[in-house]
């Protein structure tokens, strides 16, 4: 967007100069060449900030992951959609299937493909990353969004307090959040480091940052993702590859709405920040870490929670 705006600005300055008699025929020709170049780059998508990037977003069949994939796609990136299986998008009625979503995203300027696999299984992770890179080339943006507070039986764990939890739920939640993120980074980051190019964005949660007595396995898994990301950013520093965390507050995804009682007041659409987030608001923050505007920022955590949790450390 910056490049388009800059070119339109340059062009309008030259045309304004021409009409005020300060511009020569030579300037006019340069201006027209600039205009043709701008139009061409807008049409072929190369003016978009993420043009040519290959973004793999885990858990992008639905919810937040899907909104992130759509945002990165709108900024020009080729997209690898991913989910645990083809049918995951249909679970809460968001889309028919993963491949249907990929088809809908595909355009003349940006490719979209789909891969499936359990992120907590190391063999599946290595295979899905290899498949993705075979189809679209080296991954340059990795967003680890697969996860959530989903226990061993596929539902929200209960009980789930520090002194009252089921071990199988804690294992399941750790596996789909922390272990999945670590395995994906292990599979993707070395190639990024070889290419000296890449941005990794891991999805945390505000529960990673505050002590509380609920969702204990989930809160600990997300806190560990924050720490893992800092360690990863440190290891990758010399290669130029970056790793950051986005920690969303409660966000109105279909699963979020279907799996709890929500507060009517928190659905307000007024100016107040005391409300649930929209998935697109979280996706916008992810796109900042994915793109060139954050090129010297790594190992950081951005809370997208409307100032719900303000922490000194
Ligand atoms: N919605 C919120 O309020 C909220 C707040 C903070 C953080 N988050 C985080 O955002 C992410 C997305 O949440 P959401 O609300 O969109 O939920 P969601 O359930 O709609 O999306 C999670 C996706 O991850 C996939 N997934 C789960 N386990 C997997 C596994 N083992 N292997 C492969 N894929 C797997 C699911 O199939 C699903 O597509 C999660 O990491 C969640 O913890 C959500």
Characterise the protein shown here.
The protein has 313 residues and is an alpha/beta fold. It has 2 domains: 2-44; 54-304, NAD(P)-binding Rossmann-like Domain (Rossmann fold). Helices cover 45% and strands 12% of the residues. The chain contains 9 helices and 9 strands. The protein has helices spanning 2-19, 25-44, 63-74, 98-105, 122-136, 167-195, 216-236, 254-258, 279-290, and strands spanning 54-57, 78-83, 112-116, 141-144, 160-161, 164-165, 199-203, 242-248, 301-304. The protein has a 7-stranded parallel β-sheet, with helices on both faces. Strands 5-6 form a two-stranded antiparallel ribbon. Strand 1 (54-57), helix 3 (63-74) and strand 2 (78-83) form a beta-alpha-beta unit. Helix 1 (2-19) packs antiparallel against helix 2, helix 3 packs across helix 9 (279-290) and helix 6 (167-195) packs parallel to helix 7. The chain is globular. The two termini are 34 Å apart. Mean pLDDT is 90; it is low at 1-23. Residues 59, 61-65, 83-84, 88, 118-120, 145-148, 176, 180, 203, 205, 248, 250-251, 253, 255-256 line the site of nicotinamide-adenine-dinucleotide (NAD).
């Amino acid at each position: 967007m910056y490049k388009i705006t800059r070119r339109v600005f340059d062009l309008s300055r030259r045309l304004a100069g021409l009409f005020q008699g300060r511009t020569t025929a030579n300037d006019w020709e340069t201006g027209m060449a600039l205009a043709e170049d701008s139009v061409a780059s807008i049409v072929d998508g190369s003016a978009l900030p993420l043009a040519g990037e290959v973004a793999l977003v885990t858990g992008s069949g639905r919810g937040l992951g899907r909104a992130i994939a759509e945002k990165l796609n709108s900024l020009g990136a080729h997209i690898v959609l991913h989910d645990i299986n083809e049918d995951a998008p249909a679970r809460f009625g968001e889309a028919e299937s993963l491949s249907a979503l990929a088809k809908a995203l595909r355009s003349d300027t940006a490719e979209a493909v789909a891969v499936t696999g359990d992120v907590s299984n190391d063999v599946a992770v290595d295979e899905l990353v290899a498949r993705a890179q075979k189809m679209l080339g080296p991954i340059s943006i990795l967003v680890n969004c697969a996860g959530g507070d989903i226990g061993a039986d596929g539902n929200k764990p209960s009980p789930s307090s520090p002194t009252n939890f089921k071990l199988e739920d804690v294992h399941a939640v750790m596996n789909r959040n922390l272990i999945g993120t670590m395995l994906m980074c292990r599979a993707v980051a070395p190639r990024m480091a070889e290419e000296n190019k890449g941005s990794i964005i891991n999805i945390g949660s505000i529960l990673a940052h505050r002590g509380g007595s609920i969702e204990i396995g989930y809160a600990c898994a997300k806190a560990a993702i924050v720490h893992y990301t800092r360690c990863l950013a440190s290891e990758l520093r010399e290669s130029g590859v970056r790793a950051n965390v986005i920690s969303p507050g409660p966000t109105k995804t279909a699963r979020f709405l279907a799996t709890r009682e929500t507060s009517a007041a928190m659905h307000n659409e007024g100016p107040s920040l005391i409300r649930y987030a929209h998935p697109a608001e979280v996706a916008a923050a992810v796109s900042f870490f994915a793109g060139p505007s954050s090129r010297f920022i790594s190992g950081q955590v951005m809370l997208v929670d409307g100032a719900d949790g303000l922490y000194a450390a």
